[in-house]
């Protein structure tokens, strides 16, 4: 007792008792936290066993995605799938999202470290307001620890929403590798078979007169169609899988021209294709009006039509530049 000489024993015992109570309370709090985490993981696994993509409202989102404790990552698609929203892009993105979630759910690497969820605007408008979100679809990653960073929001406008692109983004954010398995799609094979059958049937019916094969105009038109398809960005659409257009769920406004010079919508490529066809046809008609030796009135009409197509091309092109570059023809 010499160590505690001059120190009141009752104060010493009180300090020891307080320390013991704090330890017991801390241990109880940790145990409660572990039990809560176990219940959340168990509930998420149960929902995931029923459906690869877990539907969430505002309460479920705040409890299982935002609130701690949580040792699992969550991928959330914020969307607007109700028919009255008329969001065709949301439906297309949802199909790709379902393919990705099913690939993860039925893979051998599936675990409780990653879950796929969806929040529909009509079921969780408060979540959209809480996150200051005014467009759909949007993909976000909520990490197991900490708050989402800028890179945890998927750049859909630039990359597109193909399942493979989403899988690469998830691998970067979570280190979880997902191999995408798509259900068999025989539409391409059937279309190719029908095309071959049609061409073969046409050649068989015209087997006694194959002069059309040597028709320069026909081959020129076919070549122009290929050129128009390639220069309008159809290959980019095939690789990136962008949405056809974008509809703002807040005001219903539909955008057919992408606001960035680094991306495009499918509708935009169709517009470019028509513009390329217009300027080509306009130049051909102007050349025809200048070189032909037919009736003057007919040549004048051809010239006016050609000029109209050229004017249409440049006027529409100017409007596209204004849409993409916010009123400036060049950046």
TrEMBL record:
Gene Ontology CC terms, in alphabetical order: oligosaccharyltransferase complex
GO terms, biological process: magnesium ion transport; protein N-linked glycosylation via asparagine
UniProt membrane topology term: Multi-pass membrane protein
Chief localization: endoplasmic reticulum
Extent of the signal sequence: 1-29
Transmembrane segments: 186-205, 217-236, 271-289, 301-321
Location(s) in or outside the cell: Endoplasmic reticulum membrane
Pathway entry: Protein modification; protein glycosylation
Keywords for this protein: Disulfide bond, Endoplasmic reticulum, Magnesium, Membrane, Signal, Transmembrane, Transmembrane helix, Transport
Similarity remark: Belongs to the OST3/OST6 family.
Matching PANTHER family: DOLICHYL-DIPHOSPHOOLIGOSACCHARIDE--PROTEIN GLYCOSYLTRANSFERASE-RELATED, TUMOR SUPPRESSOR CANDIDATE 3
Protein name: Tumor suppressor candidate 3
The organism of origin for this protein: Cyprinus carpio (Common carp)
């Amino acid at each position: 007792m010499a160590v505690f000489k001059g120190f009141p024993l009752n104060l010493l015992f009180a300090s020891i008792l307080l320390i013991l109570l704090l330890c017991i309370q801390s241990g109880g709090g940790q145990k409660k936290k572990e039990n809560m985490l176990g219940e959340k993981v168990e509930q998420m696994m149960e929902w995931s066993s029923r459906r690869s993509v877990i539907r969430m409202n505002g309460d479920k989102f705040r409890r299982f995605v935002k609130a701690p404790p949580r040792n699992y990552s969550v991928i959330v698609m914020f969307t607007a799938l109700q028919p009255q929203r008329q969001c065709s892009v949301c439906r297309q993105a949802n199909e790709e999202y379902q393919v990705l979630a099913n690939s993860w759910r039925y893979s051998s690497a599936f675990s409780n470290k990653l879950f796929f969820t969806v929040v529909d605007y009509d079921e969780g408008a408060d979540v959209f307001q809480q996150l200051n979100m005014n467009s759909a679809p949007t993909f976000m990653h909520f990490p197991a620890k900490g708050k989402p960073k800028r890179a945890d929001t998927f750049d859909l406008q630039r990359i597109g929403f193909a399942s493979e692109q989403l899988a690469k983004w998830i691998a970067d954010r979570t280190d979880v590798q997902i191999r995408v398995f798509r259900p068999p799609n025989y539409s391409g094979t059937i279309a190719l078979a029908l095309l071959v059958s049609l061409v073969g049937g046409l050649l068989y019916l015209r087997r006694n007169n194959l002069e059309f094969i040597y028709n320069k105009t026909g081959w020129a038109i076919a070549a122009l169609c290929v050129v128009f398809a390639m220069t309008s960005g159809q290959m980019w659409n095939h690789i990136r899988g962008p949405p056809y257009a974008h509809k703002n769920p807040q005001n219903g406004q539909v955008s057919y021209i992408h606001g960035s010079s680094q991306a495009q919508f499918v509708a935009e490529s169709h517009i470019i294709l028509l513009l390329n066809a217009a300027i080509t046809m306009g130049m051909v008609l102007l050349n025809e009006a200048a070189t032909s030796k037919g009736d003057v009135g007919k040549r004048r009409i051809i010239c006016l039509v050609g000029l109209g197509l050229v004017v249409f091309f440049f006027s529409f092109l100017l409007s596209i530049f204004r849409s993409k570059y916010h009123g400036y023809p060049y950046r």
